[in-house]
Amino acid sequence: MADPELEAIRQRRMQELMAQHGTGKQGNQQNPDQERAQEDAKREADERRQMMLSQILSSQARERIARIALVKPDKARGVEDVILRAAQMGQIVEKVSEERLITLLEQINSQTSKQTKVTIQRRRGVDDD
């Protein structure tokens, strides 16, 4: 296939995808003002969350959670949720140090660790007894 033909097929496919994406969005698209308000509310909630975490966690603990979030964002979010819930319930009265965060991470890992089991099944040949 020649390059101009390939390019024409790509252009046509892109137009089809854009048309599908555009019509799909218009059916359940909200008012732009509502979308902006939702984005602002989400951003504001995230800022409040980060502010609360900065008050609860020491700088070393925040750095460790940030490093965890680079690799496993869902795990970091879960740890943050646990810490925020504990703080709201009054179980945390002082800043969480890195050592305490590590013990908390170990507890969470032991509760949520998945046991992997490998089973090897050997096939028997026709002449095996």
UniProtKB/TrEMBL annotation:
GO terms for molecular function: DNA binding. This is DNA-binding protein DDB_G0278111-like. It comes from the Eukaryota. One of its GO terms (cellular component) is nucleus. InterPro entries: PDCD5-like (IPR002836), PDCD5-like_sf (IPR036883). It comes from Brassica oleracea var. oleracea. Residues 14-47 are annotated as: Disordered. It holds the Pfam family dsDNA_bind. Belongs to the PDCD5 family.
